[in-house]
Amino acid sequence: MKWNIYKLITTMFMIVGGIIFLIPFIWMLSASLKPEAEVFSYPIQWIPSVFMWENYTAVWTGEFLLAYWNSIKVTVITTVIAVTFSSMAAYGFSKIQFKGRDILFLLILATFMIPAQAILVPQFIIYQYLNLFDTHMGLILLNSFSVFGTFLLRQFYISIPDDYIHSAKIDGAGHFTIFTRIITPMVLPGIATYAILVFIFTWNDYQGPLIFLRSDHLSTIQIYIAKFASESGIMYSLTMAGTVSAIFPLILAFILGQRYVIEGMASSGVKG
């Protein structure tokens, strides 16, 4: 009986907490469908008196579509590259024996303690020297190689017994076959978790495009919304419509992969 009461209280607490966290999103969605005069009306009118679908029509112009496409392109390519290279590095540092492996991994892991802001100036200089400044390729490479991703996926690869590798080697399989056909399919929850994290981080990245992009036709959705809000700051309904449109891919990605996120976070770091 006491246990049921405890579960009931915990459930109610989680429901209330979830509603509190959803309030900003609900207000943003409501404001995006209101006439401009009703956005800051008091008391708050959660359901618009008139649903202004025209707000979304006004936002989805050519520039918004271009920025949306730029974000999709940069985010998808970055996610694919980051997952590929982090998986390969994680496999190498967990399943391949070579001299100085652990020391090299510790040195790589130590770079994770360096704040990203501390290396912005060297990155900027290198990008200008390599003609990667103001290009999508430079923006893609910026987030394609992650120490965190290598560390995270290494925990999943370590959890796979080495007996699978030994059996595959007896059958004549090389490391590429073992990596792609045997070990990696066993850690798909971890890979999916990391892919979603990279997707969300890259899509929401504001600092990278702000510093390394200058041309308007290369702007990502975050830069475009900030520019749109500054140019039409009094049109909060249109700004909220653009913001709701911008977070839709994140909601879709999390809905599709939430099971992997929960499983991946629960099992990561168990072994190391």
From TrEMBL:
Record membrane topology: Multi-pass membrane protein
Recorded coiled-coil stretches: none
SUPFAM superfamilies, sorted: MetI-like
Organism: Evansella vedderi
Pfam family, one: BPD_transp_1
Gene3D superfamilies reported for this sequence: MetI-like
Family, as annotated: Belongs to the binding-protein-dependent transport system permease family.
Higher taxonomy: Bacteria, Bacillati, Bacillota, Bacilli, Bacillales
Keywords noted in UniProt: Cell membrane, Membrane, Sugar transport, Transmembrane, Transmembrane helix, Transport
Principal subcellular localisation of the protein: membrane
Protein name: Multiple sugar transport system permease protein
CDD domains, per database record: TM_PBP2 (cd06261)
Domain ABC transmembrane type-1: 68-257
Localization in the cell: Cell membrane
Stretches that traverse the bilayer: 12-33, 72-91, 103-130, 136-157, 178-203, 234-256
Domain of life: Bacteria
